[in-house]
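PROTEIN DESIGN WORKSHEET
SECTION A - STRUCTURE
LENGTH: 137
TOKENS:
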């Protein structure tokens, strides 16, 4: 069972490049998909809803068991740290609009604001614009 709450599970899915899809039949009216596989928040609830006993049947329904087992032990803090690490990687990469913006790492409040925006699903271009706007202050 995942150790993080629903909101952090959503944030982690978005950070892992799963895309949000609105669906009134889905849990909370949305699901998250990447490479035609759906993110699993809580496997026991999903199995009960689908009436499935064998977890492998979930693959047949298009669910991503591999990601579930890779991240199921993550806590809320671990999910937030993963997202923070992604931002740091973008700063040190050569192919991101955040590339070279090392001053973000020197400003804890700015970094946490950017992490929060990333958790909400904003892409690097929005984060870079936010950085630019905050640097003008």
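SECTION B - SEQUENCE
RESIDUE ASSIGNMENT:
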């Amino acid at each position: 069972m995942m150790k993080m709450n629903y909101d952090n599970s959503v944030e982690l899915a978005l950070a892992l490049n799963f895309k949000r899809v609105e669906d009134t039949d889905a849990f909370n009216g949305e699901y998250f998909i990447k490479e035609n596989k759906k993110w699993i928040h809580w496997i026991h609830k999903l199995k009960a809803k689908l009436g499935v006993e064998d977890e492998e049947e979930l693959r047949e329904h298009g669910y991503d068991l591999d990601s579930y087992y890779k991240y199921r032990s993550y806590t809320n803090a671990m999910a937030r740290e993963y997202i923070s690490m992604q931002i740091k990687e973008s700063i040190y990469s050569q192919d991101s609009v955040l590339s070279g913006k090392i001053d973000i790492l020197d400003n804890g409040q700015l970094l946490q604001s950017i992490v929060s925006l990333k958790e909400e699903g904003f892409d690097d271009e929005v984060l870079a614009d936010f950085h630019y706007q905050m640097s003008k202050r």
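SECTION C - NOTES
The chain has a mean pLDDT of 88.
The helical segments are 6-15, 43-50, 56-60, 65-71, 76-92, 103-106, 108-119, 124-135.
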